[in-house]
Predict the structure.
Amino acid sequence: MRSYLVLTPPNDLRSRSDRDHQSTLVLRDGFSWLALLFPWIWLFWHGLWIVGFVILFAQLGSVVLMQVPGFWTAGLLFGVAISLLIALEGRHYRSEALIRRGWTLEMVISAHDLRTAEEIYFSGLPQPEQQPMPVSAEWAKQAKPPAAGWQAPHMGLFEHGGR
């Protein structure tokens, strides 16, 4: 089972309230393959700009270290270690950055997949109050039953019964 973090956005008085929870984030915690293969691009994609630039320069440093005679292995291990660190801790760092920006960590859910985690969280929320259905119009209660035969009032092009 995987762990999922449920984060709700900060309450901003200028924006509308998030009663329908469209901005609620359910983030999977754990390893990320994209962060392993493209660590600084993954960080930029998620808005972690400062750390993204630090990792970009660190990886460029590992490439430069690989060019120095006798340090090729050290440069390679340094680059792999950086990628592995971002792959393992990148999602946690993203959630911590969101919390620093004012987001609220509502709960941590263990589930098999994202859909199940969302169902667990949203099923536990209080349901909105049910509004009673509008009362039928008074005219429907006061209507007279229609008269039988030709004596009934008619609608249409022709009138029958000498009217």
About this structure: The chain is about 45% helix and 10% strand.
